[in-house]
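Lecture notes, part 5. Sequence design as translation. It can be helpful to think of inverse folding as translation between two languages: the language of shapes and the language of residues. The source text, in structure tokens, appears below.
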């Protein structure tokens, strides 16, 4: 049957023409122009969806409603909705996976310590000082001898203890937790990740070794069995 004959048959049978809900859904999805939907249709292993893609790509189907084409391909609303839910979820996961490397790099940068300008001395490494300070004051010196109208001006090393106007700023605490957890260096509870290597000893011998290494504090405070012990 020719394409024109198929179109005429579809229109005569009225497949989906009155299905306003299906039509509204497909119109919103816009498979004729939505690149993501078309790529998903092209990847489909279901011949019905491949046929749907082929038909909406042909000029002679431009005047045929999307729901009519879909139902002519034996795809109902629920099937199309379930198919797109699965495909869009997979596409979203792929986007997240592709972005995860860059995001991890950003988190790693946030976790690093870095130098910042000291706010006390504005990065100069020294601050103004009054006259008469003890001579052993670190960096105490005359910076301007002055003239007849004004006396000398004094300075001293920045009392913040900065290094030439720079202070070490720790990295973001949350970013550090994320990086350490991702690397396996700490557990989810925040403690160190410890691996016990028992070698080739038997299970019974290992338990015996662990038992010998344990100590019990008989003089310690009583423990409420209903509550976890305090650390």
């Amino acid at each position: 049957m020719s394409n024109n004959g198929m179109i005429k048959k579809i229109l005569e049978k009225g497949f989906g023409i009155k299905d306003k809900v299906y039509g509204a859904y497909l119109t919103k999805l816009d498979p004729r122009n939505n690149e993501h939907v078309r790529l998903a249709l092209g990847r489909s292993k279901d011949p019905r969806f491949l046929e749907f893609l082929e038909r909406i790509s042909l000029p002679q189907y431009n005047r045929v409603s999307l729901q009519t084409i879909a139902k002519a391909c034996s795809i109902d609303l629920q099937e199309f909705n379930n198919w797109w839910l699965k495909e869009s979820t997979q596409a979203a996961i792929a986007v997240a996976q592709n972005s995860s490397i860059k995001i991890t790099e950003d988190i790693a940068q946030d976790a690093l310590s870095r130098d910042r300008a000291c706010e006390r001395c504005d990065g100069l490494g020294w601050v103004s000082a009054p006259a008469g300070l003890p001579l052993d004051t670190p960096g105490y010196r005359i910076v301007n001898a002055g003239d007849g109208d004004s006396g000398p001006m004094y300075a001293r090393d920045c009392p913040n203890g900065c290094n030439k106007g720079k202070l070490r700023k720790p990295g973001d605490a949350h970013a550090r937790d994320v990086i350490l957890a991702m690397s396996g260096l700490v557990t989810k509870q925040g403690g160190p990740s410890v691996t016990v290597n028992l070698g080739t000893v038997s299970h019974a011998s290992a338990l015996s070794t662990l038992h010998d290494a344990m100590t019990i504090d008989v003089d310690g405070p009583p423990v409420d069995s209903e509550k976890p012990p305090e650390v």
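The translated text above is only one of many valid answers, since several sequences can fold into similar shapes. The longest strand covers residues 153-157.
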